[in-house]
Amino acid sequence: MEIEHYNLDMIKPEIAIEILAKNGIIVTREEAKKVLELLYFLVKLSVNQIVNK
After folding, report:
1. Is the model's pLDDT at 36 over the cut of 80?
2. pTM over 0.85
3. Contact yes or no for 44/6 (Cβ under 8 A)
4. Rounded Cα distance, 3 and 47, in Å
């Protein structure tokens, strides 16, 4: 079962930059985009594993 209902624009890189900065992690916009891409991938992977059980 393929799930494609996530939106990569839900959390903007600027918001991710702010959240990370509050935790002492300074990143560029491009780095924030890569972090978000990784997080969306991990969420999709986790959901697929749960659904396929």
Report:
1. yes
2. no
3. yes
4. 8
Q: What is the distance between the alpha carbons of residues 53 and 33, in angstroms, rounded to a whole number? A: 31
CA distance 44 to 30: 21
Q: How far apart are CA 18 and CA 39, in angstroms?
A: 16
Q: Please count the helices (runs of H) and the strands (runs of E) in the chain.
A: 2, 0
Mean of pLDDT over the chain: 86
Query: Shortest CA distance to 20 belongs to which of 33, 2, 8?
Result: 33
Residue 4 or 15, more confident: 15
Backbone phi and psi for residue 4, each to the nearest 5 degrees, phi listed first: -125, 35
Residue keyed to tokens 């959240």: 19
